[in-house]
Design a protein that fits this description.
Chain lengths: 110, 193
């Protein structure tokens, strides 16, 4: 009985060895992989977590600050409009000059 | 004590296992260099920058493995069909012996154990290639090619086994029936002269 048990054990070991040999080249298919980059969502969530944990005091907007912001915005808009008008006037002047040159050339030709 | 067939199968499985492993490693490096695909080597193995690059290298590497496997299988099938000891022609035997290539002539036990091992590798590779193709990790046509080669090799192998069985049956039919032996005594006497 003991002899039979030993034979069965050795044969089962050899079967495992055979199966391992069969699986060995197939496992080599897992040798290549792709670089694992962190998805963007994780980065965003990390940022959210930082802002939540921030111990900075909350910004309270006072009427004075509101006024300053409003004035700043007004000033920027004014500057923009001025820039647009100066650009437009310079273009108009250029056009007038070119028209004058054309007229002179016509007169000379006549 | 030891199972002879298991020892034989383990013995026959070593060469294709080493061959396939080598082909896999060499093909990954060669395909990457040929297609200018950068890779790095770490504990996890070969690491590629993007999935697209991985799919290209993986597919061509599996293709190289299928080619190596099919070469081995068809070498065995050639031996089984042409140089099988049970049905090799006397002329071919004489030629092979004169060329000192007698190791080509093998019996059914050797040929079929080799055939089973090579076909097992082929089926396993096709199975894994199919799973990879299903998940978009390799090209579908690589799996189709592997499946075609495996089916063809299996059919040819079965045909050879059938041929062998027919020969075995023929040999049994032609054998002298010892049990039905009868003795005939011819009497020569004066009456017959």
């Amino acid at each position: 009985m003991f002899k039979g048990l030993v034979t069965t054990g050795i044969n089962s070991l050899m079967t495992v060895l055979l199966l391992g040999l069969l699986a060995l080249p197939i496992t080599s298919l897992g040798l290549a992989t792709v670089k694992n980059n962190l998805p963007q969502t994780q980065v965003l969530s990390a940022q959210d977590e930082i802002s939540q944990d921030c111990s900075c005091p909350k910004i309270i907007i006072t009427p004075q600050m509101e006024r300053e912001i409003y004035e700043k915005v007004l000033k920027e808009e004014k500057e923009k409009q001025e820039a647009i008008t100066t650009e437009a006037t310079s273009k108009i002047e250029e056009l007038i000059e070119t028209e004058k040159i054309d007229e002179r050339e016509d007169n000379l030709n006549e | 004590m030891f199972s002879k067939i298991l020892i034989k199968l383990i013995d026959q499985a070593i060469v294709p296992a080493v061959l396939l492993l080598t082909v896999r490693l060499v093909s990954i490096v060669l395909v990457s260099y040929q297609m200018n695909i950068p890779f790095s080597i770490s504990k996890a193995g070969f690491i590629f920058g993007s999935t697209q690059q991985y799919v290209i290298v993986n597919s061509y590497s599996i293709l190289a493995m299928i080619i190596a496997l099919s070469l081995g299988i068809f070498y065995n099938l050639t031996k089984a069909f042409v140089f099988h000891s049970s049905h090799i022609t006397p002329q071919a035997t004489a030629k092979i012996f004169s060329m000192k290539l007698s190791f080509f002539i093998q019996n059914s036990y050797d040929l079929y154990s080799q055939g089973i091992i090579w076909l097992s590798y082929s089926f396993l590779l096709v199975l894994v290639a199919g799973i990879m193709a299903l998940f978009g990790l390799s090209f579908g046509w690589v799996f189709s090619l592997g499946l075609g080669v495996t089916i063809l090799a299996t059919v040819l192998f079965i045909l050879d086994v059938e041929k062998e069985m027919r020969i075995e049956k023929l040999v049994e039919d032609l054998s002298y029936p010892e049990d039905e032996e009868e003795t005939f005594v011819l009497k020569f006497g004066e009456d017959y002269v």
